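Side project, low priority. Logging it here so it doesn't get lost.
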Amino acid sequence: MLHQRDNNVEAMWQLFKSELEVKIDENVPIANNFNPKKESWTRPLDIIVRQKLSDKHHLWKSYRSTCDPTVFKQYKSVWNAVCKDI
């Protein structure tokens, strides 16, 4: 591929670059357009589970703003229920 007697840096760089691009095209998979807001990604969960997730989020926000231990216990209870359902 590269010979030590070739002192042309530009030619060596172009050769390396072309080999790299060929290997990338051969071995790196092409990613598809992932959109987490698509209907198929938001609807696999049951509506009850989604409601529990929403409740968990609201309890966490409430706990973070108040640092109330009773709210944290409620949050942990909902968190455990969500983990059990999923």
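Brief comment: The CA atoms of residues 56 and 76 lie 8 Å apart.
Revisit when time allows.
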